[in-house]
Amino acid sequence: MTGGGNYTVRRTLTYPEHPNSQIVFETEVTAASETEWSTRIAISGTYDGPTDVVGTKDYRLEWTTDGKALSEKGSATLELSSGGSVRSVWTSVIVPAKPNFERFASGGEVADVTFSPFKIDGNKMTYDWQGTARAATAGH
After folding, report:
1. What are the backbone dihedrals phi and psi of residue 47, each rounded to the nearest 5 degrees, phi first?
2. Residue-wise pLDDT tens digits, 43-85
3. What pTM does this model have?
4. Which domain holds residue 75?
5. Is 86 within the bounds of a domain?
6. Which of 62, 79, 103, 139 is most buried by its number of CB atoms within 10 A?
């Protein structure tokens, strides 16, 4: 999936320590270029876990494709200001308007990502991230 284009994403996020929590993100992404995206997100569901999230670690994604859509499985540990943590796991289906998976690894890809601490100012959150994607291997 390279260049500009439109994508729809449906992500279902759960928290193993909080089994009554499930959040669904319905997202439309318009990519004007490789570096400029516009995103619209509708969020629904329930969350009964802690609300003092300040960072994330152990962020991992696994992607596979059927040639039309990208399936994503992910997990991360959310760090809390209290010193504790909450595990999050999700599944996503990413559907580009014009699929182009020609250069995608046939066995899927795995990405490990690191994030800077979150900076929260009122209703604005910023962070930096860096990640590496590679072809999946038998044991990941």
Report:
1. -145, 125
2. 999 999 999 988 888 999 999 999 899 999 999 999 999 999 9
3. 0.76
4. 5-135
5. yes
6. 79
